[in-house]
Amino acid sequence: MQKRKEREDFMSITAPALMPRLTLPSIIIPSQLHSALKSIYCPKWGSISSSNLHNNYKKCIKSLSNVRTIIQRDYLTILKICLYLIQFEEDLELKRFRLLNHTVKTSDLENCFIISLKSLNGDLHVIKPDCEVDLRDNTKKVIFAKIVKVVGNDVTIKPYYPENPNTLKMKGKRFNIEFVDRHWSLRCCHYALKIVSKCNWIEIVYPRLRTNCTDMEIDIEWINADLKENEPQKQAVRKILNKTAYPAPYIIFGPPGTGKTVTLVETICQIVRHFPTKNILVCTSSNAAADEITKRLIKYIPTNLIYRMYAPSREWSTVKNEIQPCANFVQESTLFLSKELLLRKKIIITTLVSSVRLIDVNFRENHFSYIIIDEASQAVEPEMLIPLAITNKESDEKTRFHAQIVIAGDPYQLGPVVCCKRIEHLFGRSMLERLMDDCDPYKKQDGKYNPNYITKLVQNFRSHENILHVSNKQFYCGDLKICGGADIRMALNWSQLPNKKFPMIFQEVLGTETRSVNRSVCNTAEVLAVLMYVSILIKAKFGKHVITPKDIGIVTPFKQQQLDITHHLEAMKLKGITVGTVETFQGQERNVMILSTVRSKAFEHNGKEHIGFLSNPKRFNVALTRAKALMIIIGNPNILCRNEHWEVLWKYCEKHNANIPFEQLPGLKDRKSSSFQAIKKYIVSTYKVDGEKVAPFIKHYLKTAVSAGAVVQTKRKGATGSFKLSTDKPKDKAKGKAQRASLVHSDTWKAGTKKDGREKTAIARKPAAAVKKTTAKKALESPKKATPKTAAAKTAVKKGKAAAEPKSPSKAKKAVKAPAAKTKTPKPKKATAKAVKAAAKK
């Protein structure tokens, strides 16, 4: 009832006056630049211009790949050219997705339809919710629709006008379909650049170190009691309240699990408490992050002071119940408040791109005292300028920014997604990363950061020490301190752990990667391994905690692998397990994480081997820091260890006996006596996988397991026989061979290779004493074979045979042995002793 009343109150004050519809100008690429881009990307079209400006643009575009950092003089120019370049590439790519005489299917969602793109080859990254769809029938009538979601090769659309669904539902109706990118985010960036260029932007974008920082002592009563024992978090809040960095941005450097969001929420609450007349703008890269901050703030601040502003494309049904009272919806439709009503809100929360709608409100220059940007490491630099343009007008050439900018993020986690390879190194580097690398206020002095400009949070509340160890050493100088509760240790002593005191497993899987129609990569063997571990984990007990699907997260770098795993989990009726790419899991955590690396072949570039975008250290760091209590890595170490970070991880797990060989894959090694067909039938029925796809993997596994001694073949040879689990331990020799195989392909494992080489030499060359002993043994054996040739021996043998004739076979053997044992051959023995001595000396 209380929530309904709050909702009605919100609607009553927002209904009378609304913000006028925002219209941003379309982007028209300058003709000479467009001509230069055509001549570079489509040389077969030929150059349509030879002017100096055309040639200068061409040189500029080609030189971008050599630019490592943007200097102040070229800042605005390079950003604009990069935006034009992205637009040109996206438009060029979308032309490949035109469909002629195509049908649509009805979706489960109301008034929605599905366009299947299975007939098209290519990466669908350019088809995103920002795009629109034009469908033309044979009458040339056009139906305009928006994209709701893209899953695999299926694009779900929703027509803008209510009468259109009836046309789309007509059986046998065919359309010519075209995808159109309105480039909304690019238009927002261009608009912000135009405004910011007229202002004094240099002091924010290229700040200088100042010594006269104001730092007053403020008596703070902490709202979140957990901050009382966390000095870095308290330091950040105090410095931001005092604006010690102004006009430069203040940076909160928040490694995984260190409470970055907690610090931001505490900062906002303290600003409201100590400066009740100040206004705050909170912007994030994603709606998920904005929702998280809103959800936490409404616990401490009345909802009528908070305005959660969504984009018009947001569906009311997707807004969380607790956020709805302060969301910009009326009667389940989005609306934007007028300036008069916006002035009543102390805190406005939105995404960076959606904040562009506040520019035309024309707030006073000093309306916002604080602009807080979360997830700053995931935003391209022009997006970071959008909120800075809100309180500045184009005519104010010397205007200073009045707000203290706060930037929160982690430069060692995933950066902005940039599909244009030519400028990926420029646009893929966030403003946060550039400031920390290039600007003096944020650089370390004597091994420490300047607290007036930046705070590094170091207390990790998420992960077990062993799970965090590699990332901590590789990226955070070993500064992170483990402060989690008992839940981070609940996986210890789990029955499946090779080392019961080490909550990590590196499962070797020697699978084969294949490329799907949409050019993404998958690995059937690893899909099966993931399903095996999931089936073992479900309902497993970690102490008193029973594992449920919500405890498990499955992360993989490739979209197709994500889709395959999701499909099989659904077939196994396992719901509630989140399966996603590394981008999906940034900012999230689970008690148990399973990482499927997929990669089973290396690539070569400029004479050097690499493992594709798995080589990206930021991607590696994010994938490895999502788990709280248990981390399971599934992959091929022969390939992965060609990268330095994966090599360190493999060695670390090996040091703690956490590596499981391929032949000991759980779920397969527990199949006792079975034929190949029985094993295949069991796997297909249990894990709902394709029998034909999984057959080569099973054969490979059986061959490896037999050679390693983990499985015994009881009938016939090859994969047609029967197999049973070996009662003996796997052969040490095979184990050593498997370990060496994991190193042999890696250039960086030279020390290990040499060690293995020495071990081989030690085995091949026996010690001198052993050689003498062997020679002597052979020399002793040879006279024994010759002894029957002596007269005495022959007589003894004949007597033995005669004595043995009336007796049974078993007794006959004894009769033969008895005389032979008693036979005396003194002369040959002496000769033999001399021969032994001679052979030993030799």
UniProtKB/TrEMBL annotation:
Region annotation Disordered: residue ranges? 721-842
Stored SMART domains: H15
| Superkingdom assignment | Eukaryota
**Keywords tagged on the record:** ATP-binding, Cytoplasm, DNA-binding, Helicase, Hydrolase, Nucleotide-binding, Nucleus, RNA-mediated gene silencing
> Where is it localised?
Cytoplasm
The entry lists its GO molecular-function terms as: 5'-3' RNA helicase activity; DNA binding; RNA binding; structural constituent of chromatin
| Residue span(s) of domain H15 | 642-727
Q: Locate the compositionally biased regions of type Low complexity.
A: 833-842
State a GO cellular component annotated for this protein.
Answer: cytoplasm
Residue ranges annotated as compositionally biased, kind Basic and acidic residues, are: 726-735, 753-762
- Which Gene Ontology BP annotations are present? nucleosome assembly; regulatory ncRNA-mediated gene silencing
**Function of the molecule:** Histones H1 are necessary for the condensation of nucleosome chains into higher-order structures.
PANTHER family associated with the record: CANCER/TESTIS ANTIGEN 55 (PTHR45418), CANCER_TESTIS ANTIGEN 55 (PTHR45418:SF1)
Q: What is this protein called?
A: Helicase MOV-10 isoform X1
What gene name is listed for this protein?
LOC112468615
